[in-house]
Amino acid sequence: MSQVQHIALAPERQALREANQLRIVTAQEEGTAIRHLPNGVYGFTGAPATNEIPLFIKPIFECFEVHKRADGEVIFIGYVTEKEKQLIEQGLEPVVADLYPEPHGEALTLVAISGTRVDRRRPPTRDNGNSMKVDIGPR
């Protein structure tokens, strides 16, 4: 019986972590609000829309990956449609996007969205791909 690899182990996601020189949160840091964590870490959360954003070591089903870069900037990792990605990257106007923690439907394009551009996060749907609707401001 073959084991399915969790999406968090995908090479494209590992490349993002390596590019930003991030390490996974430690066992002692698990469950800590992101604002209390040191810079240069990443982890997984089921509560990406809260102010706390607690991070954990192990990814669970349809959880979000969140980075805290060396400069302290918070980055939300997820999947959007190609059209949403283009609008986010252009950054000319506000965008409302459904950010999925894993590929779902047409949302197959990996993005890293800066928390400084996120004006509003709504709680994940908990069904149909567990998307989190985010309002993203222009650059």
UniProtKB/TrEMBL annotation:
Superkingdom in the source lineage: Bacteria
Disordered: annotated segments: 119-139
Name of this protein: Uncharacterized protein
